[in-house]
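Agenda item 2: PMV complex prediction
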Amino acid sequence: MKASAPGKIILFGEHAVVYNRPALAVPVDQAQVEVEVTDSDKSGVWIDAPMVELHGELSTLPDDHPIAAVILKLFQHLGISQHPNILLTIRSTIPVAAGLGSGAAVSVAMFRALSSYLSHPLSDEQVNGLVFEIEKLHHGTPSGIDNTVITYNKPVFYMKHKPVETFTCGKPFTIVIGDTGVPAPTKESVGDVRRLWLHNENRFEEMFNEIAQISTMARRFIETGHPEHLGELMDQNQEFLKQMTVSSPELDVLIYAARRAGALGAKLSGGGRGGNMIALVDQAAAESVAASLTSAGAKRTIITEIK
Ligand code: PMV
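Presented output:
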């Protein structure tokens, strides 16, 4: 039994989304997790996950190991006490800790492959809820945006505690993603923003309101087929992220390089302090912006069409 899940980028509204403001996120098909579950002649639940250098049996892992936690959560959800003899093979082209949702994508693909193998396929709602539980184990207070966009595999306008809203693009547009190669410490940046918010609630609430307006306007431009206006909104969103202290010298260098190379706008994407930045480009300029990012130090670039 096989299942796959895409990566994701946040286009607008990271961090503000933790404070109940809307954010926009889209799936990225160029980065994928694939999970296969097969019968095994060895006893127990064997896991082969080369991207995290893991090959071992479930009972040798701590219960809170990100991969073990998914399996144990599913067994508990389905009331399975006798572990089956299986091999789970996990392959991923999503870089870890880069803001591309690798953790949530591994969880989504695992829940789907394993539940189908066990003849109890889960609905999207069930997958989304279970993956959110796993995200909480590892990230403290996640907003839930990663599990939502990756589970539904569609552009989402996400607000905590609100029904999931997916949306469609009036006209496709091109985003270049540039990876700083620096791990993004999302838990730490979310914690730092919380401390700053506690010290200066009025100022941060105002910034979050401005970002909420940016995300709302961006959704309208995307839906009505005017993605060319997103560049300016990305630049504005980036200014607020800088004020929140979640940009970094490496991100700033790449964002500057993208703008110089002709991008219509650029910002960090995800928790920040590392991980990825994104740039809106005319399709014809995508390769040259990606090349400029590489020259400026990007460890990897992805060109993706948002449809
Ligand atoms: O670093 P990522 O891609 O997991 O994104 C984090 C996004 C935040 O808004 C900073 C946190 C959250 O839980 O939404």
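Discussion summary: Residues 201-223 form the longest helix (23 residues).
Owner for follow-up: CH.
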